[in-house]
Design a protein that fits this description.
By secondary structure, this protein is an alpha/beta fold. It is built from five helices and four strands. The model is unreliable at 1-7 (pLDDT under 50).
Amino acid sequence: MATGAGPICTCGDTTAAAGGKRRIIFPCAGQANTGQLTNLAAIQLTEEGYGNIACVALLATGSEGLVANALKADEVLILDGCPMLCAKKIAEAQDIPVDQHIVVTDLGITKGPSRLYTDDDIETVVSAAWEGKGRI
């Protein structure tokens, strides 16, 4: 942990990812299985070099640094678990343009209890992002 000003947040680091693009991934991370899938997929996408995960809760606070990073990104990917579209609404409230928006339930995954998902479900969401299925 850093000293002085407190911990340094790396949310939304805009280091270039795959293909030289600077991408930020905002998962809704809701409590249902589909929300949990957004977080797991965002982690995997970050590990695979697609982009960098960022905290949608911090974005909701209007964090100047995170908003600035999102505005500098080449692509903003929103992963929502269900049709409530919480993450997309948060991005829009901060005037963040959304380049790709994926809704897990639109991928054929039924919303249910938090731990009701499989590795194949995670891969479905990850593949959808890589394939650009949510491009706007």
